[in-house]
Design brief:
Elements lengths: L1 H33 L38 H13 L1 H21 L5 E10 L10 E13 L4 H67 L5 H35 L27 H7 L1 H22 L4 E12 L9 E10 L7 H67 L5 H36 L13 E3 L2 E3 L3
Antiparallel strand pairs: 1-2, 2-3, 3-4, 5-6
Helix pairs in contact: 2-4, 3-4, 4-5, 4-7, 4-9, 5-9, 7-8, 8-9
């Protein structure tokens, strides 16, 4: 068998070499005629980035895990739990895994495809058909020469989309952490307002008892009782509205933590933290390079640019080699005694597709230009978020100062009016209006301090870059009690 094999094989190899040499010149001529491949270019970004932000920022360094700057240990635990259990974040992580598989799928086109095939057949009656039984075992290989970089650019585009999807995951992680912090602080503020309203209601009921006693002695009119009762009902109504907000915020927090709404046990206690010094915002260009949503948009733009190269490559010829080695016999026992091999090549040149290939190229170019504009808008949006947060941060301090001054004046006015009322020199209506204003200012001040905290939160989110999540640093994300491998 060895002598027979080499007798057939050596001449076949020589024939393959001759065939391959004949294919070189046609390929070279086509390359000269159609150009030397594609050159990926990126359009200029239609955005002028300022050298600095319009407002001054602080000097303190902001950590990657920016929420620790609030100094709230319970918030840190909540965000850590959300980063492990939030279902949207898990879903985004598996989207990254899908894009990683897409890269591997496209990369497989750069290597030969090999198939093993076993065929068998029988013809009856034998005298009427040549061959009788026929058995064939063949090994086939197909390979497309990436003349114009079509497969290479497709793989690079898939890698860019993979980077973009991972940056989307990091963006979502920032968003989840921010939403947990926003919900947590709002919950603390509303519970603080609710406790304040309960104190105010208790005080108002004491005032109502005093008015009734004075009414019994004929010192005041009955309408004063009605007005005080109306004030109590007004505060009760506000307490009900705040209670509604507290319960819905608990439900929202539960969902962010990956649990069913209504399952958070007990009352979440805590107070609003004091603000740390204003962080250093850095330079706008540093922000663009740091923010994952901006970088994600950039990589999508680059991927779209590479897809233009792919669309152009589709209009060029394709060179494919097919190699087949086979064992054939009329009987299975003699299968190894007969070998055959073949090498074929094909050069496919697109001639007429009804304009489809040019339309695909035009579509790819239009999509690239769209992604350029999307990237520019994303950059502008990132800069706006920082500028807005800095404006609100600076002006909210003034607003809180004005509210504190108003509250101080209202308390002094109420104290004087209360004394005058007890002395019988004024009607109760003046006292009632002053009391209502004072109590409302106290509630407004709690809301204003919450807004100040949320503006700082917005600034942290606007400046934040990516940070390691439990899925990234080798941990596992879990679904109920079943571990899901993170990588």
């Amino acid at each position: 068998m060895p002598n027979s094999f080499y007798t057939h094989y050596v001449p076949l190899v020589r024939h393959f070499r001759m065939l391959a040499s004949h294919l070189v010149w046609p390929v070279v001529l086509i390359a000269v005629a159609t150009g030397c491949g594609n050159r990926v270019t990126t359009a200029d970004i239609p955005v002028t980035v300022p050298e600095d932000f319009s407002l001054p920022t602080g000097e303190s360094e902001m950590q990657a895990e920016w929420w620790v700057n609030f100094g709230d240990a319970e918030l840190n635990l909540l965000i850590d739990s959300a980063l492990r259990q939030n279902l949207d974040l898990k879903s985004s992580w598996f989207q990254v895994a899908q894009n990683a598989s897409d890269v591997a799928i496209i990369a497989s086109e750069r290597v030969p495809q090999v198939f093993l095939e076993l065929q068998g057949g029988a013809s009856r009656p034998v005298p009427d058909f040549v061959g009788g039984e026929n058995t064939q075992l063949s090994l086939r290989s197909s390979y497309e020469v990436d003349l114009w970089g079509r497969v290479k650019q497709s793989k690079l585009a898939a890698e860019d989309r993979l980077k973009a999807s991972f940056l989307d995951y990091q963006t979502l992680a920032i968003s989840v952490a921010g939403e947990v912090a926003l919900t947590w602080f709002s919950l603390q503020a509303f519970q603080q307002q609710l406790a304040l309203i309960r104190e105010q209601t208790e005080y108002n009921e004491q005032v109502l008892a005093l008015i009734r006693a004075r009414f019994a002695s004929g010192q005041v009119r009955g309408v004063d009782i009605l007005r005080q009762q109306q004030l109590i009902q007004n505060t009760e109504e506000e307490a009900t509205a705040i209670e509604m907000e507290v319960r819905t915020l608990r439900n929202r927090l539960a969902v962010l933590l990956g649990t069913a709404p209504g399952t958070l046990s007990g009352e979440q206690t805590g107070t609003l933290p004091d603000l740390s010094p204003l962080p250093d915002a850095g330079l706008p260009m540093e922000l663009i390079n740091r923010r994952p949503d901006v970088q994600s948009s950039f990589y999508r733009m680059v991927a779209a640019d590479r897809e233009v190269a792919v669309a152009i490559s589709n209009t060029y010829p394709r060179l494919t080699f097919n190699l087949t080695g086979a064992l054939r016999s009329n009987t299975l026992t003699n299968l190894v005694e007969s070998q055959a091999a073949s090498l074929t090549s094909s050069l496919l040149m697109p001639l007429f597709y009804g304009g489809r290939l040019n339309a695909e190229k035009d579509r790819a170019e239009a999509f690239r230009e769209q992604q350029v504009q999307v990237y520019g808008q994303t950059v502008l949006q990132a800069l706006q978020e920082v500028e807005d947060a800095l404006v609100r941060e600076s002006l909210q301090k003034k607003r809180i100062g004005y509210l504190e001054n108003q509250l101080n004046l209202a308390e002094r006015a109420f104290g004087q009016l209360r004394v005058e009322y007890l002395n019988g020199s004024i009607a109760y209506l003046d006292v009632l209006v002053s009391l209502d204003q004072m109590q409302q200012l106290k509630r407004d001040l709690v809301g204003a301090r919450l807004d100040q905290l949320l503006f700082r939160l917005a600034l942290y989110r606007a400046l934040a870059g990516g940070f390691e999540t439990p899925a990234e640093n080798g941990g596992e994300i879990t679904r109920n009690d079943n571990p899901i491998p993170s990588k």
